[in-house]
Amino acid sequence: MTRSTPARRTADLDGPVHWVDHGGPESGQVIVAVHGLGGSHANWHDLGPLLATRHRVVAVDLAGHGRTPRAGRSSSVRANCQLLGRFLDEVVGRPAVLLGNSMGGAICVLHAAEHPEHVTGLALIGPALPRMRTDVPNKALAKQVALFAVPGLAERSLARRRARLGPQAFVDATLELTCADTSKVSPGMRELAVQLVQERANGDDAEAAFLEAARSLGLLVARAAAYRALLASVQAPGIVLQGELDRLVPASGVRQLAALQPGWPVHLLDGVGHVPQIEAPARTAGLLLPWLHSLPLDVPSGASRAAGVTDSLAGTS
C-alpha cells in the first residue's frame, strides 16, 4: 500500500539511524534511496511517491545528515558505506535496488562493488565520479573546496553562515548551487528541508560531520584510477541520470562511467542541474520505472519477497 505521507522510522545501528518508508506494493523491487552530501531523506520527497506506485521505497539518512546524528560515529564516505550495509542487512533484510544521488551515488557504487549480494540494481543520479586533472570546478565550488581544507576555520565559517542566513535562506542557497532552476523545486520539499535545518536533529556537530564527509568524498574522487577500477568492477545492472546543467559533476566523469560500464544506459536531462529527482521528479520517474521493470525480481530462498522489509518494520520505532 502506497502512503501519501512517508512513515518515519528509526533503527539502532550503534546509534540512531533515521529513515522514511514511502510504502509501495510488495510485488515490486525494494528501493533504498541514498542522498548526497548535506542532503537527507527530503531529497526524495517528490520522487519517492512516484516510484512507490510500483515498488517499495525507503530513504535513509546517513550519519551526520537529516535526522541521523553522528552519535560518536564517523560521517566519512567509507563509514557511511558500512552503515548502508548494516541498514540493508538489519533493516531491509533482502537484496535491493540502490538509488543514489551525488555522494550517495558514490556510496552505492562502493557498496555494490564490495557486496554484490545486497544489490539487484544500481540507479545513479548525478553521482560523484572520478575527476580528471583537466576538470576545473566552477568558482562557487572552488571557493568551498578551499575553505573545507582548513580545519577549525571551516567549521566556524559554516556555523556562522548558517546562523547568519537562517534556515530558509540557507536552504535557498543550497538549492541555488545544486539546481539549474530553483522555481521547479516543490513547496513540500522546500518546507521539509527548512524544517530539518531548524531541527538540527543531525546533531550539534553537524558542521564537523558535513566537513568530514566532504573531505572524504574529495579524496575518493581525487584517487581517480582506484575509483575507476572500482566502478568497472560493479556487476549489478545500472542506469545513470545526469542533468546537462550540473555544475558539480563534470561531463568528463559521465563519459568515463559510460566507457567503464557500456551496458548502463545514460540519460542526460536538458535544463536540469545536479539533483534531477528534486528539479524534475516526473521526468526522473519516467526514466527509472521502465528500467526497474526490466530487472529480475530477487526472491530469497525459503522466504516471501517482502519478508525482510516487513519484519524490519516491526523491529524499529
How would you portray this structure in words?
The protein has helices at residues 47-51, 77-92, 103-114, 139-148, 153-178, 187-199, 206-222, 224-233, 251-260, 276-279, 281-294, 307-314, and strands spanning 2-12, 16-23, 30-34, 56-60, 96-101, 119-125, 238-243, 266-269. The chain is built from 12 helices and 8 strands. It has one domain (2-297): Rossmann fold (3-Layer(aba) Sandwich), CATH 3.40.50.1820. It is 46% helix and 16% strand. By secondary structure, the protein is an alpha/beta fold.
Inertia-based shape: globular
- Class derived from helix and strand content: alpha/beta
* Total domain modules: 1
Tell me the helix content. Answer: 40-55%
List the secondary-structure elements in sequence, H or E: EEEHEHEHEHHHHHEHEHHH
Q: Which whole number gives the mean pLDDT? A: 88
Report how far the terminal alpha carbons are from each other. Answer: 19 Å
Assign the CATH superfamily: Alpha/Beta hydrolase fold, catalytic domain
Low-confidence region ranges: 299-317
Share of β-strand residues? 15-25%
Determine and state the CATH class. Alpha Beta
> Architecture, CATH level 2?
3-Layer(aba) Sandwich
Query: What is the number of E strands?
Result: 8
Count every helix, treating DSSP H or I runs of 4 or more residues as helices: 12
Structure, briefly:
The protein has 317 residues and is an alpha/beta fold.
Key phrases:
single chain; disordered C terminus; 8 strands
Secondary structure elements and their pairing?
Layout: E1 2-12, E2 16-23, E3 30-34, H1 47-51, E4 56-60, H2 77-92, E5 96-101, H3 103-114, E6 119-125, H4 139-148, H5 153-178, H6 187-199, H7 206-222, H8 224-233, E7 238-243, H9 251-260, E8 266-269, H10 276-279, H11 281-294, H12 307-314
Parallel strand pairs: 3-4, 3-5, 5-6, 6-7, 7-8
Antiparallel strand pairs: 1-2, 2-4
